[in-house]
Amino acid sequence: MNIGDVSTLSGVPVKTIRYYEDIGLIKPLRSTNGYRSFREQDSHKLAFLGRARALGFSIEDCRTLLELYEDDSRESADVKRIAGEHLARIDEKIAQLQSMRSTLAHLMDACAGDHRPDCPILDDLGQSSPGSSSTMR
Question: What tens digit of pLDDT does each residue of 9-20 get?
Fold first, then answer.
């Protein structure tokens, strides 16, 4: 099948498929005239990669997961370790976002939002280090 067909079947955009080929994640067959020819297994790999990327796995994690997916002698502990490391990164990002939200909510509460020019939000943004304004103490 051609790149458009495999894109439709896998749900992965054509541009992404070309990128995955460039970095060696997939290796479609090439005809003598240079056209890509995708097999059913390529479609499955692309769908796998699309799902892994949607879950936020890095390209290198995807490369490792794909290798494990194709290895019948794999140990599920290896897969679980990679997923656990990724989950820890997600938890860290969530904590950072919650902290950002808390700081911004505090600053918004401190801002009168009226006709006066003083604004704790701008004062905080103008500080040399995050959260160092008097409104954060």
Answer: 999 999 999 999
Give the whole-angstrom CA distance, residue 26 versus residue 31.
Answer: 16
Residue 121 to residue 63: CA distance in whole angstroms: 43
| CB contact set of 134 (below 8 Å; sequence gap of 6+) | 123
> Global pTM?
0.77
| CA dist., res. 71 & res. 56, Å (int) | 22
Centre a 10 Å sphere on the Cβ of residue 52 and count the other Cβ atoms it contains.
19
Residue 98 in 3-state DSSP? helix
- Interhelix angle for 59-70 vs 40-54, to 10°? 140
The C-alpha angle 66, 70, 72, rounded to 5 degrees, equals: 135
Which residues is 29 bridged to in the sheet? Answer: 37
- pLDDT per residue as tens digits for the range 53-106: 999 999 999 999 999 999 999 999 999 999 999 999 999 999 999 999 999 999
